[in-house]
Amino acid sequence: DVKVTQSSRYLVKRTGEKVFLECVQDMDHENMFWYRQDPGLGLRLIYFSYDVKMKEKGDIPEGYSVSREKKERFSLILESASTNQTSMYLCASDPRDRGGTGELFFGEGSRLTVL
Amino acid sequence: KQEVTQIPAALSVPEGENLVLNCSFTDSAIYNLQWFRQDPGKGLTSLLLIQSSQREQTSGRLNASLDKSSGRSTLYIAASQPGDSATYLCAVRHYNFNKFYFGSGTKLNVKP
Lengths: 115, 112
Fold this sequence. Notes:
The complex is a heterodimer. In chain A, the strands form 2 sheets. In chain A, strands 2, 4, 5, 6, 9, 10 and 11 form a 7-stranded mixed sheet that branches. Chain A is globular and about 45 Å long. Chain A is mainly β. In chain A, a hairpin with a 2-residue loop joins strand 7 and strand 8 (73-78). Chain A is built from no helices and 11 strands. Chain B is an all-beta fold. Helix content of chain B is 0%, strand content 60%. In chain B, strands 2, 4, 5, 9, 10 and 11 form a 6-stranded mixed sheet that branches. The interface between A and B is medium-sized, with 24 and 22 residues.
């Protein structure tokens, strides 16, 4: 079974802190994604990466950056956390192979609270 | 731009009832459609995946159908149980492969 693991399930940070959210997948997937989920707004794409060191901005990249130094790991970075970044963060991955199913797999989520 | 709509937003049914959740999308240029389940405070768990060339997929008490031409998918849950209580989301993968569009979900409550 594909496993997408988000290292922190719950985090509480102060305004202005630098925050790292880590995501690791164990199925050699090329594509990895970071979403945030908020009530009434649904899932919104922050960034996506289609290969090591490659990234593309999603719909709401402002205030975030990402790092993909190894294929299995995709990190989301909040350089200076703000209260409006309090949210559920979801990591996902899938194989990029066009001949494949294109199935998307999610991690358990990281609930971030910024005080 | 693709828009994905799920109706109803919430549904409450007695245990044992068969039910249908709806998902509609505006652009038929899709690669696949995926149904997910989300429990409170958790991530999304994949339930069923339908490729654009398929009409339906089944897993246990779940059956998902796809009508690409009309832009609709349904998730049928047979003999519902309290453990089915969760939010169900559908997601459409665009034909250009790296773009996903999510519905806002249907929150299901199955009463004992």
